[in-house]
């Protein structure tokens, strides 16, 4: 896990590769987090919803500890930038997923449910078809209803 501003960046398959399992693990984690957010309340602000955006992308990435006085774990590569763009171009209470991750999820035994979002412009990459992750066939997630646009 790396923090970038107010965002958390999570990687799977580092430093030990795990095949296509990384896409499954991150997607399940995203569904679990979003499901939890539907019932989460800040103690000092009851009734005020907390809206999060989640973005997922799969590809090559490097990681390591940087710094001597204040070492921290860092992630590097275009995949990291694209995952960040997936989050920033997403919508509240939604899991925005790239085509590369959907292609990997299709090749696994897990039956993920998703909807085509459509064409999305991603800075540095151009326009791509992206998706909303909405659940799995074998587990019922109590996902919060996204706000209307």
Question: Can you give a write-up of this model?
Answer:
The longest helix is centred in the N-terminal third of the chain and has 17 residues. The chain is 24% helix and 31% strand. The protein has a single domain, classed as Alpha-Beta Plaits, CATH 3.30.70. The strands form 3 sheets. Strands 3-6-8-7 form a 4-stranded mixed sheet. Strands 1-2 form a two-stranded antiparallel ribbon. It is globular. The chain contains 3 helices and 8 strands; from the N terminus they run E-E-H-E-E-E-H-E-H-E-E. It has 149 residues and is an alpha+beta fold. It comes from Lepidothrix coronata (blue-crowned manakin).
Walk me through the topology.
Blueprint: E1 2-4, E2 7-9, H1 21-37, E3 53-56, E4 62-66, E5 72-76, H2 78-88, E6 94-97, H3 99-106, E7 112-122, E8 126-136
Parallel strand pairs: 3-6
Antiparallel strand pairs: 1-2, 4-5, 6-8, 7-8
Domain Guanylate cyclase: 1-87
Pfam family, one: Guanylate_cyc
Keywords: Cell membrane, Glycoprotein, GTP-binding, Lyase, Membrane, Nucleotide-binding, Receptor, Transmembrane, Transmembrane helix
